[in-house]
Specification:
134 residues, mainly alpha, 3 helices, 0% strand
Length: 134
């Protein structure tokens, strides 16, 4: 009886050692792949930075015209937008478009808030069909 227990414990110990070997080999494979990916990404980053340096213009761009800023406190127009706010919006559009040709035609304030617009959108999406003849 004692020899049967000993044989069973030896088999279970071999099973545990086999499982550990399998897990260790799996971890080594995963870390090797991650290291390989890190090397590939590092090489591609260096290639991209070299290409970006080659594409930079050799001569600096022409200096931009100075912008005049009003020192007095301007009054808002009839819609409530001050010239400073228009300048801020124009600068944001120019920065976002990054040199693309554009023209701001009109800037308007909406009378409703974002919250009420959101509620209106939610209510509009939950309209039930109306039954005709009832």
């Amino acid at each position: 009886m004692h020899s049967i227990l000993l044989a069973d414990s030896m088999l279970s110990m071999q099973h545990i050692i086999g499982s550990l070997e399998y897990q260790i080999v799996g971890m080594i494979v995963v870390f090797a792949c991650l290291g390989f990916l890190a090397i590939i990404l590092g090489i591609s980053a260096k290639i991209c930075s070299m290409n970006a340096e080659k594409q930079k213009p050799a001569t600096p761009s022409a200096p931009q015209k100075p912008v005049t800023v009003a020192t007095s406190s301007p009054q808002p127009d009839e819609e409530g937008l001050s010239p400073e706010m228009v300048a801020v919006i124009s600068a944001a559009v120019a920065t976002t478009l990054q040199g693309l040709n554009h023209r701001i035609v009109d800037i308007q304030q909406h009378s409703r808030s974002y919250a009420s617009e959101g509620r209106n959108e939610i209510f509009a999406s939950h309209q039930l069909p109306r039954h005709i003849g009832r």
